[in-house]
Hints:
The chain has 15 helices and eleven strands. By secondary structure, it is an alpha/beta fold. The chain starts with a helix and ends with a helix.
Amino acid sequence: MRTQLGTYCQQFDGTLRPLLEDLSTTLQALEHAADDVPGRTLMAPLRELRHQLQTLCDKVAEQQAYVLIFGPLKSGKSTLMNAIAAAYVSEVSSLPAYPCLVFVSAGKQREYAVTAYDGSTRLFQEPRALAQHIDKAHGELATAIRTAEQRGVTFDPQEHFPQAIRRVDVRVPGSELASTGAVLVDTPGLYTRMRFGYDRMTRDFRNAAACAIFVVKSDTLFLEQVFAEFQQLLDLFSRIFLVVNVDAHKRDVSPDGKLVPSLEQSEPQAVLRAFEQLAMSAPLQQAAKEGRVRMYPVDLLHAASAVLQKAPLGDAPQGFQEFRKDLSEYLASNEYMAAFLRDS
């Protein structure tokens, strides 16, 4: 049965994908041209254009729902990805803070594709081999950044080090992602030092993703700097799911000296109410009233453990059940389809 979305995606892909071959042919010619050929100055912007067009064509051709995951370092992003995918993917998202995007999608077998800014791709089958490659690339990137700084120029990998890694694609067999068509996109931690490409990476999805997940620990929920760039996300995405990572094992001391469950364990919703009343910015409050931002307190370790052990959904924390239900319903909704068509 041909759907409106299916017809649109087929026509879109058939119209734009041929341009990728033309761009690749042009870039190949420029790479082999003499250094004094003026057209070589176009190589960096043409690589950027090819990457953006490739990302968009792939998304539309496969009708993929890109779900970007943001948050500070060590906030629980990789744990959430395990829980959503119902498959272990932490060996990738916990790589040493390399500033690239990690795409996690369903696949027939587990494999890793590493793509550089120059468009070249390397395939890996084993996480250990991938980790070694990333570790080496991290040192090479750091050297390139220092060299640019010594020259007094702002580092741009597209121009100064096109061998830098731009994205890592992870294909996971037997995951929940196969049924939803969703692709989880893990972004660099907001506080990573190598932030040269952060704005560029989020711009990649200005016209390619309709929703995002922002993960923050309950311990840092009330810190203003955690939400310093949240306005940018509000401008980029039609829907944001705010997941507050709570520690269900945290304890407080009672007046008589006994250890008792903390507030975030006994009443996690009370923590969110306090955040709304005391710390939430006006734009965030308005977005919450409009339904564009929805908040969920979730013990992510418990949620990931339950999902990976194939426990019944009812065994997962209540907050995670509500979050997964709302995310699935949004990705299957007419609202998302409209956003998909508009953005594409």
